Amino acid sequence: MNRSEGVLPQGPRMPASIVALAAFGLAVAAAALIGVLAVTDTSGEYAALEQPGWAPPSWLFGPVWTALYVMIAISGWLVWRSTGWTSRLIPYGVQLVLNAIWTPLFFGAGLRGPALIEIVLLWLAIGWTVATFRKVSTTAAWLLAPYWLWTTFATALNAAVWTLNR
User: Fold this and answer.
1) Whole-number Cα distances in Å, 107 to 7, 44, 71
2) Which end of the chain has fewer CB atoms < 10 Å from its terminal CB, N or C?
3) What CA–CA distance (Å, rounded) separates 130 from 146?
4) pLDDT tens digits, residue range 94-147?
5) From the CB of residue 133, how many other CB atoms can be counted at a distance below 10 Å?
6) With contact defined as beta carbons under 8 Å apart, do 91 and 134 qualify?
7) How far is residue 134's CA from residue 67's CA, in Å, rounded to a whole number?
């Protein structure tokens, strides 16, 4: 039976590109949610830590990370649009996993020293991702620049907090 014989027509299929963008958004959201769900009261714990004078207020982290996660998702999607699901996305996956691990390590387990080592690995993985993405899309690489800069700052903050609270 064809459509003209009374079968309801199928709605328009969602383009693969939109599905992939949603998949990148979900992957980034999963990385973020691991930290949120694994640890309670990070802002209270952050406030209780001895901090350097240049430490930002805890309310700043949410808006900054929201913007960064949007850029991270779009960056991955742009590379996917050019290459598909290829090995070019491996560093992207590695940095997302490392991103997800840091909050439970630093706040949940209170392991500030190991968290410092982990965030250095994250910083290196972001650099690997930027270098890989730059070969495919300069826009995708530049979208990761604020993330890399913020992680540089977060690494210095992690080191200072670890030093001040030993």
Assistant:
1) 56, 10, 25
2) N
3) 11
4) 999 999 999 999 999 999 999 999 999 999 999 999 999 999 999 999 999 999
5) 26
6) no
7) 21
What is the pTM assigned to this prediction?
A: 0.89
Instruction: Describe the crossing of helices 90-103 and 61-83 by its angle, rounded to 10 degrees.
Output: 160
Give every CB contact of residue 94 below 8 A, 6+ residues apart in sequence. 125, 128, 129
Instruction: For tokens 């982290």, name the residue.
Output: 61
d(CA 159, CA 149): 16
Supply 89's token pair: 């996305």
What whole-number distance in Å separates Cα of residue 15 and Cα of residue 27? 19
List Cα–Cα distances, 162 to 48, 58, 66, in angstroms.
13, 17, 25
- Residue 139, both tokens: 């826009």
**Alpha-carbon distance values, 149 to 38, 39, 122, 155 (Å):** 25, 24, 12, 10
